[in-house]
Specification:
This is Acylhydrolase. It comes from Mucilaginibacter terrenus. GO terms for molecular function: phosphatidylcholine lysophospholipase activity. It holds the Pfam family Lipase_GDSL_2. By secondary structure, the protein is an alpha/beta fold. It has a single domain, classed as SGNH hydrolase (Rossmann fold, 3-Layer(aba) Sandwich). It is built from eight helices and five strands; from the N terminus they run ααβαβαβααβαβα. The longest helix has 25 residues.
């Protein structure tokens, strides 16, 4: 008789406990942060924006580079109100990352021309394995891809840098000059347009003129105004 009374009581208690425990067991575990370590070239950076671009015209130009181009659009957005100027700069990127992005951020956008600005972050790298030859190998691969897809190439002589604020003492000035010499020779040998950002910005130390830069590496508004002038001239040649 007692067993008959105890059993329903135990079942009732278990049901009450289950109801009380439900909020705790039903609590969702925090969602795991998506791991993008396999996206070394940061393809996701412009993936969504690329899908919203209007149909290309025969005057579309892609600016492919790193922080110099990305900051340009942020600091002087009026320059990129021209719908044919597509900024695809990603801060900190090195030449092989630009090469990996070349299909998504250049070829697939069907531009008439591409401006390639590469090399400074390679030179500033902490591992010390980068050489001018390796930078130019990546540049050459991008040029060959562009030609295959009938995209005109504008190669850039890099902006002068006397010192990197985040890696002082690296003495990059001569390395930039050596890179620019290789870029100029390659452009001449392959009948490419050379866009010289070095000459109008350089000072007596082979760094950037103080009145044209924010930190010795990145231009200020005045510096970008000078860059805009020589860039427009190079684009006009490319689109003839």
């Amino acid at each position: 008789m007692k067993l008959k009374l105890i059993l329903p009581a135990l079942l009732l208690s278990a049901g009450v406990y289950a109801q009380q425990a439900k909020p705790d067991t039903a609590a969702k575990a925090p969602a795991a942060k998506e791991d993008f370590s396999d996206d070394w070239a940061d393809l996701r950076h412009y993936a969504a924006e690329n899908k919203t671009l209007p149909a290309p015209t025969n005057k579309r130009v892609v600016f492919l580079g790193s922080s110099i181009f990305e900051r340009w659009k942020a600091l002087v957005p009026s320059y990129f109100t021209n719908p044919d100027y597509i900024d695809r700069g990603i801060s900190g990127q090195i030449a092989p990352q630009l090469l990996l992005r070349f299909r998504q951020d250049v070829i697939n956008l069907k531009p008439k021309a591409v401006i390639i600005l590469a090399g400074s972050n390679d030179i500033a790298g902490s591992q010390g394995h980068v050489t001018t030859e390796r930078i130019m190998d990546n540049v050459a691969s991008m040029v060959e891809l562009a030609k295959l897809h009938h995209i005109k190439v504008i190669l850039c002589a890099y902006l002068p840098v006397f010192d990197y604020p985040w890696r002082k003492g690296l003495q990059p000035a001569e390395k930039i000059i050596a890179l620019n010499k290789a870029v100029k020779a390659y452009a001449a040998a392959n009948n490419l347009i050379l866009l010289d950002y070095f000459t109008p910005l350089v000072d007596s130390r082979n760094g950037q003129k103080a009145e044209l830069t924010l930190d010795g590496v990145h231009p200020n508004v005045a510096g970008y105004q000078i860059m805009a002038k020589v860039t427009d001239e190079a684009i006009a040649k490319a689109l003839k």
